[in-house]
Amino acid sequence: MLLQRLLLLFILSPLFCQSQDNPVDPLATTETKALYHNLKQSRTKGFLFCHQDDLAYGVNWKYVEGKSDCKTTAGDYPGIYGWELGRLELDQSQNLDGVPFESMRRFIIRSFESGGVITISWHLNNPLTGKSAWDPAPGTVTAILPGGSKHDVYKSWLDKVAYFLNSLKTDRGVMVPVIFRPFHELNGSWFWWGKNHCSPAEIKALYRFTETYLRSNKNLHHLLYAFNTDKFYSKEEYLERYPGDEWVDVVGFDIYQRTNDQQVFFKEFDTMLGLMDSIADEHKKIPALTEFGYGGLPVANWWTTTFSNAMVNHNMAYALAWRNAGKKEGGEMEFYIPYEGQLSEADFRKFHDTGKGLFLKQAAKLNLYRK
Ligand code: BMA
């Protein structure tokens, strides 16, 4: 009886409630915990604007010190920087988009020191066939789970990821917190970890195994874990492959505008943002737009209308615009924020000036790594 009362008191105590609202890694570093709490807070003030590979290259340039398409057009660097690990698992010195891992490390540490946030995705090759992430060979997830024929290969790939993540450390020895986003867009079927290639139980097991391995075997405690789908239409669909509240810090989704009908896209986007907000609130997680883009940006005022009008109705902690690859092999152009002279440049600047999206200067003021 006494024991029961004590238990009840503990459950009702602020200590217990607080422990319900911490990162899923109980040993998360001080800066990682602070980032988690601060992102939960800052989402009510505005969303941090994020851009993939921002400092490495843009449209018509590569590796120019200090250059960024975001800075050139909006007037400031992004508040969050997205990076990608694909091919690290193969011991290559550059990722699948040609970014040298050495430069990536330097950019990451520098951005952290200037108050920005880091998120990392991983388009890892297919461990069963050795082909790319887009090779949906049946049975890949089964093969890399414990007991599977490629489990050791997968573990050796995680060792390499862990080694890189462990090197994200300042001169003073502070580990740079990273929002790690593995197995993204898992409700689509274009990647080998996608919906038609494994069961919900298998992908959940893979997510849990990966996290446990990085945390317990590799001792990494500077990671927040992001779970993210592609477009989704209901909470049930979103949660079908969700590994559980004790494994996830950030809930997000990816969306690309593929219609020129602004109304149609707005409606769809706004609905998903609403669902995301309420899933995050119900599960006490940080909601984010983990990737977005309107390829080619053909509408001059898209930022201050379609994009901004939907975002301000909601409380995403951040929104990541995908990469400004520029002209790719084969001549196709790929970019999701404007570059100098691009049609939506002036509007992007206007969007920045409204303060609705938070760029680096505002992010730094939020002191995201301080309690
Ligand atoms: C895709 C494209 C590809 C790129 C891949 C991984 O969406 O941008 O060009 O290789 O992401 O970053």
Itemize the secondary structure elements and their pairings:
Blueprint: H1 2-12, H2 14-19, H3 30-42, E1 47-52, E2 57-58, E3 61-62, H4 69-74, E4 80-84, H5 101-113, E5 117-121, H6 140-144, H7 151-166, E6 178-181, H8 200-217, E7 223-229, H9 235-239, E8 250-256, H10 262-283, E9 286-293, H11 303-311, E10 318-321, E11 326-327, E12 333-334, H12 345-354, E13 357-358, H13 360-365
Parallel strand pairs: 1-4, 1-10, 1-13, 4-5, 5-6, 6-7, 7-8, 8-9, 9-10
Antiparallel strand pairs: 2-3, 11-12
Bound molecules: beta-D-mannopyranose.
Quick structural summary:
The chain has 371 residues and is α/β, with parallel strands linked by helices.
Description:
The radius of gyration is 20 Å and the shape is globular. The strands form 3 sheets. It has an 8-stranded parallel beta barrel. A two-stranded antiparallel ribbon has the order 2-3. Residues 14-19 have low confidence and may be disordered. The relative contact order is 0.17. It is an alpha/beta fold. It contains 13 helices and 13 strands. The chain is 38% helix and 15% strand. It has a single domain (47-365), classed as TIM Barrel (Alpha-Beta Barrel), CATH 3.20.20.80. Helix 10 (262-283) runs parallel beside helix 11. The chain has helices at 2-12, 14-19, 30-42, 69-74, 101-113, 140-144, 151-166, 200-217, 235-239, 262-283, 303-311, 345-354, 360-365; strands at 47-52, 57-58, 61-62, 80-84, 117-121, 178-181, 223-229, 250-256, 286-293, 318-321, 326-327, 333-334, 357-358. Bound molecules: beta-D-mannopyranose.
